[in-house]
Amino acid sequence: MASIDQKAMLEAGVHFGHLRKKWNPKMLPYIFAEKKGIHVIDLNKTAAKLEEAGNVLRNMAKNDKIILFVATKKQAKDIVKKAAMSCEMPFVVERWLGGMLTNFSTIRKSVRKMQNIERMFKDGTVKNITKKERLMLSRQNEKLEKVLGGISNLNRLPNAVFVVDILHEDIAITECKRLGITTLGMVDTNSDPNKVNFAIPANDDSSRSIEYIANYLAECVREGIKERGAVKEEQAVADVAAEEATSSTEE
């Protein structure tokens, strides 16, 4: 079971907020103190909210739901991509395209186009076109892969979206709200925690802080997937036992 270590959070700088002059008053319940003009986040509140978010994602994964990880900030990209891949979930870490969720059918067309180009290179179809055309296709595929590679296997809308910085990913949050998709996010002292369904008060600028939160949530997702697998195995065993019992009765 994923556990929360407040000492590790402290060492990762999860508690560091923004300057007092940049704060959002709605974050007051999560602020422990002010030190040298900088707000300090209450790690007890962070731990409680992180555990709550983790339970939500664990249950979703157990029920075969899809969680999309989003982080386009430079210091968060690689961390969140790695976390998402570790639990086999889709991710967006380059650029959030407007309409990525609200205009999902169009985005899927672009994904299929990318997949078709990749298929052409794999099966050798590109040998039938000119060198210039191959180069153009290759460049086009690189651009598509960079932006859409993380959602290439996303065949339906996600059930939840986790974002690192809700101010930076405001378009993603707005689209989720419009579609009724559950949102979870790291919320620093300069943000409005009410903009997401599950706010995790934390430093969203530090790579170590981001890594701690993202890895914990990814672990919760993995646990949910593992539980789902266990349930399926139990059901399979029960089905076999039921079939054997039926066969014995018939004989």
Features:
251 residues, alpha/beta, three-stranded antiparallel β-sheet, 7 helices, 51% helix, flat
How would you summarize the topology of this molecule?
Elements (H helix, E strand, L loop, with lengths): L5 H7 L3 E4 L11 E5 L2 E4 L1 H20 L4 E4 L6 H10 L4 E2 L11 H20 L7 H18 L11 E4 L6 H10 L2 E6 L10 E4 L5 H44 L1
Parallel strand pairs: 4-5, 4-6, 6-7, 7-8
Antiparallel strand pairs: 1-3, 2-3
Question: What is the structure about, briefly put?
Answer:
The chain contains seven helices and eight strands; from the N terminus they run H-E-E-E-H-E-H-E-H-H-E-H-E-E-H. The protein has helices at residues 6-12, 43-62, 77-86, 104-123, 131-148, 170-179, 207-250, and strands spanning 16-19, 31-35, 38-41, 67-70, 91-92, 160-163, 182-187, 198-201.
Please, could you describe this protein's structure?
The structure is a single chain. The protein is an alpha/beta fold and about 250 residues long. It has seven helices and eight strands. The chain is flat, with a radius of gyration of 22 Å. The chain starts with 5 loop residues before the first helix and ends with a helix.
